[in-house]
Amino acid sequence: MDLTIIFFVLIIAGIGAVIFLLLKKKPESEKKDDSFLLIEQRLLDQKNQIDEVIKTVDKKLSDINEIARSELTKNSNVIKSITEEMVKFGQTGK
Question: How many Å apart are CA 83 and CA 87, to the nearest integer?
Fold first, then answer.
């Protein structure tokens, strides 16, 4: 009878040790999950920063395109005016 009690005590102690070890490992996995969340948040922040840079570059390129279009229109009008003046001058010379 004494051996039976010792056997049951050892089994209960073993089960208790296994449960303790399983519960002890959970905080480590939570720490890993926290580090993954931190990495994910940093990557998301970097993506947002890159998106902002892309928006800024797109805006600047759009502004440059508009300025170039305006300058080309002005230059075209100047060339047209000069051409008309040269034609008038050529007709006057005849």
Answer: 6
* CA 49 – CA 58 distance, rounded (Å): 14
Q: Any idea which residue has 């399983």 for tokens? A: 22
CB atoms near residue 6 (< 10 Å): 10
| Angstrom distance (rounded) from CA 9 to CA 21 | 18
Distance between start and end Cα atoms, the chain: 138
For residue range 15-31, what is the model confidence (pLDDT) as tens digits? Answer: 888 888 777 765 555 56
Where do we find the tokens 């230059």? Answer: 75
- Residue 25: CA count within 13 A, CB half-sphere: 5
What pTM was computed for the model? 0.50
Q: What is the mean pLDDT of residues 53-66?
A: 94
SS3 1: coil
